User: Fold these one by one.
Assistant:
Number 1:
Amino acid sequence: MSDQQDAGRDQTPDATADEMRDQPTGPDQPARRGLSRRGFFTGAGAGVVAGALAAGGGTAFAMSHGEDDATEGVDFNNSYPFYTGTHQAGIQTEPQRYCVYMTFDLVSATATDLQVLLARWSAAIAQLMQGKPIGAVAPTQPNAVAPDTGEAYNLGPSSLTVTLGLGPGVFDHRFGLADKKPKLLEPLPALPSDQLQKGYTGGDLSLQACADDPQVAYHAIRNLARMGRGTVGTRWTVMGFGRASAGKGQSTPRNLLGFKDGTRNIKEQSDFTDHVWVGDGDVAWMRGGSYQVARKIQMNIEIWDADRVSDQQQVIGRTKNVGAPLSGNAEFDTPNFTAKDAAGDIKIPVTSHIALAAHENNNGVKILRRSYNYTDGISQFGQLDAGLLFIAYMDTPQSFIQLQEKLGSSDLLNEYIGHIGSGIFAIPPAPAQGHYLGEALFG
Ligand code: HEM
């Protein structure tokens, strides 16, 4: 989308944006004071909504399909190099449209098996990222088992990136690698509002495969899992769609809450250097690497959908249509966390998501968010089972811990979400040609 289109969208003369901003915003306004958000749809609010629908009203966004999605500029022939010798792809890379994330347990307890797996995975990932199969799809010998499962044949590289992570278990007593352990790689501590389920938590290795074609991403994970059999077993996986983050130059997509996500993400090179890439302060082999935190965050979709938009905006701290901070007018206006309205109320509530997460209010802490929406269909209670596959990269896991300790205890969003899955991984730098991921561990 061009800047012109983007600007045009935000200036659309619809009543929606102004109405949204003009609704009461102070913490003591009726939406918060009298009627709980949960109670809204079952009480007086239900009639209001029904009336609006009957009248054909509502607050539809004034834009046509395609203007605000993440489909612009998709080139299925685009590929990224694997052997860069610097950072792994899939971190600073502009987020692709789909992601398959999987973690694995090491079932073999020998360092050699781990080493062989990392070498074989590296060779395979390099092939896959070029859009090539990892062996014959249809071997000439008809009785042979095909080395590549074939479903991505001719789909093009589709901007595939596969990013490997090493969990704390790699450095435990099993493999003799304890002296190589990244300084800060520990299982995450218990965090406020954790609702973690064993089936979505942990892992000795992680693979994040992102691509503009979901089948290309799935094919990569499937074939790497297949290669790993005997050395690793699958642990948990999430299939993500509709990137819920923005890289430099990309339009900002929306998450399943319907809000723009990624507006104030890390985009500038200096922020990657200062907040994402590991420098000299860690074990030497991690230089140029990063730390990955993955969280499976379930959304209480039905409850969120029953909430009035003015209240949703208070929860996030931004307008729903434009994505502007409640202290401003345009998406990229810098939030002013002390601005007050005419009644003297703080415009961006102090317990809103952005007020709690912003670097201005966290001693400068920043993380790179590279999340995706997910759905697991319908829950056992008949409700939509969906949420955010939150994936973040940072030069120290302490950044996530500091933010989540605050968000987990005070965020207005907690009424609508639950962290049900979690993993932490050290991301080694990318190998140079002729080398493989994690090679320095075995020197
Ligand atoms: C389902 C869970 C979550 C949802 C729906 C969500 C949604 C959003 C939205 C809509 C924004 C505003 C737009 C933007 O600047 O990107 C935002 C900002 C942000 N979020 Fe989240 N978020 C979630 C979880 C988290 C978690 C777990 C963290 C970190 C522990 C986090 C950290 C941040 C940060 C740092 C910002 C930027 C704040 C700023 O500087 O203005 N978010 N999020």
Note: The chain has a mean pLDDT of 87.
Number 2:
Amino acid sequence: MTDTFRSGFVAIVGRPNMGKSTFLNRVMGQKLAIVSPKPQTTRTRVLGALNRDNCQIVFLDTPGIHKAGKNLLNRAMVQTAMQSCQEVDAVLYFVDAQRGVTEGDLEIVQRLPRGEAPIYLIINKVDQIPQESLLPLLAKAGESGLPFDEVIPISALEGSNVDYLVGLLDAKMVEGPRYFPEGMVTDQPERFIAGEIVREKLFLNLQQELPYALAVQVEHYEERESGALEFHALIIVHRDSHKAMVIGKQGAMLKKIGSAARYELERLLGCKVILKCWVKVKKDWMDNRQLLQEFGYPDDLRE
Ligand SMILES: Nc1nc2c(ncn2[C@@H]2O[C@H](COP(=O)(O)OP(=O)(O)O)[C@@H](O)[C@H]2O)c(=O)[nH]1
Ligand SMILES: [Mg+2]
């Protein structure tokens, strides 16, 4: 055994709702990315640095790749996912066991700008299919004609085969630096995480199209002398009618979302949290380049 330090980057990509963020949280043993049953919950790249013996694997969770015609936000999400595959050491392409590899996946995989990096097909949610259908599914994936280096069935939710996959990635890492110091598991500041947790509660509590039409911006963040953290979260919607729905009857919905977010933030950050939420209408924010840049998207967003 040598004690050369090994490291590398691994992109987690696929269509929306395949369990990519659930997988990131599972391997990191903590919640870094928000998760919901609705597609397009993840809007930006979420980084998780996993430390193992003499090895650091840096995972990049990404927004789902979908047909991004509609607005600049959607295109920014897809662009972010695609770009995350550049200069990584491995790509994990996620599909859902119940749906298998589709024509859409075929198209996406061929377009990924992954260079020479190996690509693994991850068949997730195997807990949702009968065991006897797994072998035929694997055989079929092998025949897809795509250049997968290996096909790996997992359950990100229940954890089955996840250790095997991480071990495989560990073995692929090559001599390199420790990109992130040991105590630093992500590059997201606390205020960003706070906004994401509020957004998750909005995704979980609001119906239909509404979650897609809102954003959360943490405008103010301070550490009180008592040790409590105070966050002021602005919930941005693009229609007056949406504002009313987010606030709810006599403020009931906003209160529900606020307390669910505060409860989770306190557990996550390990301190008392004061969370104030406002709702504001900004017409067509999803096409507002400047605002999207404030959310962390690149300034070279393609039209
Ligand atoms: N049964 C099952 N559900 C899963 C699994 N992984 C993720 N999910 C669920 O699938 C939904 C989408 O997960 P998410 O991680 O947000 O998907 P993403 O859009 O690809 O990041 C959520 O409701 C998850 O709880 C899995 O292995 N098994
Ligand atoms: Mg996600």
Note: The radius of gyration is 20 Å.
